[in-house]
Amino acid sequence: MIKAYAAFEPKGELKPFEYDPGELQANEVEIDVHHCGICHSDLSVIDSEWGEMPYPIVPGHEVAGKITRVGSHVSALTVGQSVGLGWHAGYCNNCASCDSGDNNLCGSAQSTIIGHHGGFADKVRADAASVVAIPDGIDLSLAGPLFCAGVTVFTPLLEFNIKAGDKVAVIGIGGLGHLALQFLNAWGCEVTAFTSSEAKKQEALALGAHHTLDSRNAAEIGGAGASFDLIISTVNVKLDWGLYLSTLKPRGRLHFVGAVLEPLDINVFSLISSQLSVSGSAVGSPSTIKKMLAFVEQHNIKPVVESFSFDDVNAAIARVRSGKTHYRVVLSR
Q1: Into how many domains does the chain fold?
Q2: Potential cystine with 146: which of 55, 93, 150, 239 (Cβ 3.0-4.6 Å)?
Q3: pLDDT tens for residues 143-185?
Q4: Statement to judge: residues 77 and 141 lie in one domain
Q5: Residues 59-88: what's their mean pLDDT?
C-alpha cells in the first residue's frame, strides 16, 4: 500500500489516504519520495479551478526521490538512482509529438495529479519515459521545484532561440519568476524584473536582474517603450497587457507561463504594426528537463525554498495560499 495525503472535495483539507497501486507495470518505476514541491497548480487542481476534478486527489508534481523498483522493460533507470517527476507521469510514446521529442505536447499525456495519484505520498509510480535522473551536483532537497517551475521558465529560452545579449523581462518575482531571473542571467541576457513589491526589488537584483521596473507605475513602464526582445509573464492575474506590449521591440514576444484565467484584452493593431507575438507554454519535455538540469548544475542555480514536513502538509498548503511564500514550498521527510 502507498500512504499519501489526499483532498476529497474542492478546497478540502488534505487527509491521510492509502491506496493499492497494483502490480508494477513493465514500463513503470516506483519512486521513494524524499521531497515534493507545492505548486499553485496543485491548489488549482485541489480546488477544481480548471473544471471538476476526480476525487480523491493526491497532489504533488514536483517530486524528487530515489527509485525503489523498476519494471521489466525499464533499462535506462536503476534502483537507487536519484530522479525527479514533474507534471506528466506518462505519454503515449507513439504520436507525432512523442516521436519528435515534444512529449509534453502529447494529446494523451497522463497528468501526475489528475486521474493519477501524485507525490504527496511515501511513494509514487510513473512511466519511466517521464522520469528524469537528477545529476549528483544538484541538492535533492532543492530539485523538486525544477521539475515544474524550473522547466516552465527554461523552455521558452530554447523554444524561441534566446541569445546572450537579448533583453528579456520577467513579470512577477515569485515561484517561477525567481528561477527565471537566475536562468536568464546565466544565459547571458540583459534582465529586467517587473515587480510591484519594493522589498523584492533588491532580491530581484540579487537573483540576477540587472534592472527593475515598478509594475504598478504605468509611467515607469511606458518609459521602457520598445526595449525588450521577450517578456515572460509568470503571474496569474490580469494586467494592462497593451502597456506591456508597448515595451517590446519590433518582432518582440509576450510569453505567458502563468495561467491567467481572464481573456486577454489585446489590441491587434499593436501586434500588426510591430509584428509582435503573443504565446504561451507549460512545463517541457523530458529531454528539455535533462538540458535544464545540466544547465542548473553548471551554473549552480538554486530554487529558494521553505521546507515543511509531509505531516504538516495542510500548513504548507496554507502558506502557498497566503501568497507570501519565499519563493517555493517543499515538503520533506
Answers
A1: 2
A2: 150
A3: 999 999 999 999 999 999 999 999 999 999 999 999 999 999 9
A4: yes
A5: 97
d(CA 18, CA 41): 23
List the one residue out of 175, 201, 185 whose CA is nearest residue 193. 201
Q: Could you write out the DSSP letters of every residue in 269-317?
A: HHHHHHT-EEEE--S--HHHHHHHHHHHHHHT----EEEEEGGGHHHHH
Q: Which domain does 209 fall in, by range?
A: 150-280
- Cβ–Cβ under 8 Å, residues 81 and 31: no
pLDDT cut 90: percent of the chain above it? 91
CA of 299: how far to CAs of 30, 56, 173, 182, 229, in Å?
A: 30, 40, 20, 9, 23
Could you give the 3-state DSSP secondary structure of residue 189?
A: coil
Q: Which of 251, 253, 223 is nearest to 241 (CA)?
A: 253
129 lies in the same domain as 16: yes
* pLDDT value, residue 216: 86
Cα distances (Å, whole numbers) of residue 178 to 39, 66, 73, 112: 14, 27, 39, 24
Provide the grid cell at 179.
Answer: 528561477
CA distances from 3 to 38, 53, 206, 250 (A): 18, 21, 40, 53
94: left (phi over 0), alpha (psi -120 to 50) or beta: alpha
Give the closest residue to 152 by CA, choosing from 254, 280, 283: 283
108 and 243 assigned to the same domain: no
Q: How far is CA 107 from the centre of its chain?
A: 19
What's the pLDDT at 261?
A: 83
**SS3 of 72, please?**
coil
